[in-house]
């Protein structure tokens, strides 16, 4: 059947429609043929846009310059054939859909193409049915490729996350965790994978999980709070923990080591208690106010002498404790913040 007859049959040629656009690159040294394929695919499949080239070198250049979702290539071409093209594509785009669309139906070529990493192999035929098949292959392969890329990007995000992220199955065994998760417990992920979560917690904390946390997770679908884990060396780890229930009975666990933060908080509390004890042991009055004349610290002796409670002192300024000429003299001597 001639190209003109194929185009006349085009009125009866139709495809289903999808919403995402697809940019395909078709390389074939037959300029009339690639033009016809482009026409067939684009007219009835609005989401497909085809760029055509007649040489492998030009195809590689187009591939590097634009965003291509799928490559379609002939086998027999001057200078470089379709397998040469496939090898060049695979060097930079190892997973990009590549369809060898050729009139040469040789089993040896098909075997070589599969070995070289071709995604699909389609033999040219007659009539418009071959373009229906080609369009379906392009659509299905691109859909699969995009889904795989989406999963890959998701795992990249998990792997690069600063928080530890783990996924447990219904039995409570780890089926996935990123490196940050393993580092919380000072180990490698291989040491935790397929282990039960109980191996990372002291017995008392594991009891708390079984009696309180997991029932709350099952009831609400999520749980967030603090817990105490164990490193591989038996050291205790204070952690912020977020759990999310999965439909299959497992759950996602996001963990962050806050041991250092809790230690700093405890050190600050100890310093605060020491300072308060030291100030309250003074027989003299001690107080500090800021540039707005608000009291920010005082000792017990100060409270006893002026006779006000803590809440009342917070509402006072030093000027409120004086009257008459004394108050005026003090106000004149105290620098005020410019308005």
Short characterization:
InterPro entries: Biofilm_reg_signaling, CheY-like_superfamily, PAS, PAS-like_dom_sf, PAS_4, Sig_transdc_resp-reg_receiver. The chain is α/β, with parallel strands linked by helices and 339 residues long. Helix content is 45%, strand content 20%.
Protein model, in words:
This protein is α/β, with parallel strands linked by helices and 339 residues long. The chain has 3 domains: 3-157, Response regulator (Rossmann fold); 161-261, 2-Layer Sandwich (Beta-Lactamase), CATH 3.30.450; 282-333. The chain has 13 helices and 12 strands. The strands form 3 sheets. A 5-stranded parallel beta sheet has the order 2-1-3-4-5, with helices on both faces. A hairpin with a 5-residue loop joins strand 8 and strand 9. Helix 3 packs parallel to helix 4 (82-92). The radius of gyration is 37 Å and the shape is elongated. InterPro entries: Biofilm_reg_signaling, CheY-like_superfamily, PAS, PAS-like_dom_sf, PAS_4, Sig_transdc_resp-reg_receiver. Residues 23-139 form the Response regulatory domain. Keywords: Coiled coil, Phosphoprotein. Residues 258-285 form a coiled coil.
Give me the CATH fold name of the largest domain. Answer: Rossmann fold
Arithmetic mean pLDDT: 85
How many discrete domains?
Answer: 3
The total count of strands amounts to 12
Q: Helix fraction?
A: 40-55%
Structural class: alpha/beta
* CATH homologous superfamily label of the largest domain: Response regulator
Low-confidence stretches: 1-19
Q: What is the CATH architecture assignment of the largest domain?
A: 3-Layer(aba) Sandwich
Supply Rg: 37 Å
Silhouette: elongated
Order the strands across the largest sheet as they lie in space.
2-1-3-4-5
Counting DSSP H or I runs of 4 or more residues, the number of helices is: 13
| Measured distance between first and last alpha carbons | 91 Å
In percent terms, what proportion of residues is strand? 15-25%
Tell me about the biggest sheet?
5 strands, parallel
Order of helices and strands: HEHEHEHEHEHEEHHHEEEHEEHHH
Look at the structure and give the CATH class of the largest domain. Alpha Beta
């Amino acid at each position: 059947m001639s190209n003109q007859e194929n185009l006349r049959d085009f009125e009866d040629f139709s495809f289903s429609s999808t919403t995402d656009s697809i940019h395909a690159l078709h390389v074939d040294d037959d300029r009339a043929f690639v033009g016809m394929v482009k026409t067939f695919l684009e007219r009835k499949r609005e989401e497909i846009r085809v760029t055509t080239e007649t040489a492998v070198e030009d195809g590689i250049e187009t591939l590097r310059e634009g965003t291509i979702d799928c490559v379609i290539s002939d086998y027999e071409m001057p200078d470089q054939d379709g397998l040469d093209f496939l090898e060049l594509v695979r060097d930079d785009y190892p997973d990009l859909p590549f369809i060898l669309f050729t009139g040469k139906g040789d089993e040896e070529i098909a075997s070589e193409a599969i070995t070289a990493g071709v995604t699909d192999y389609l033999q040219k035929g007659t009539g418009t049915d071959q373009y229906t098949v080609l369009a379906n292959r392009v659509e299905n392969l691109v859909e699969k490729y995009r889904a795989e890329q989406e999963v890959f990007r998701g795992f990249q995000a998990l792997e690069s996350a600063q928080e530890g992220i783990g996924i447990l199955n219904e039995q409570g065994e780890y089926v996935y965790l990123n490196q940050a998760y393993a580092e919380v417990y000072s180990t490698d992920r291989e040491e935790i994978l397929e282990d039960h979560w109980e191996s990372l917690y002291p017995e008392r904390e594991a009891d708390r999980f079984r009696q309180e946390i997991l029932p709350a997770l099952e009831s609400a679908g999520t749980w967030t709070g603090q817990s105490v884990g164990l490193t591989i060396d038996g050291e205790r780890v204070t952690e912020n923990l977020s759990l999310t229930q999965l439909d299959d009975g497992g759950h996602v666990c996001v963990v962050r080591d806050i041991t250092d933060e809790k230690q700093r908080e405890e050190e600050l509390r100890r310093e605060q208690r020491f300072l308060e004890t030291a100030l309250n042991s003074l027989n003299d009055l001690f107080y500090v106010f800021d540039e707005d004349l608000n009291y920010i610290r005082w000792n017990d002796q100060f409270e006893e002498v002026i006779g006000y409670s803590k809440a009342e002192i917070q509402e006072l300024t030093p000027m409120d404790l004086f009257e008459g000429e004394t108050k005026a003299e003090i106000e004149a001597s105290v620098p005020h913040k410019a308005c």
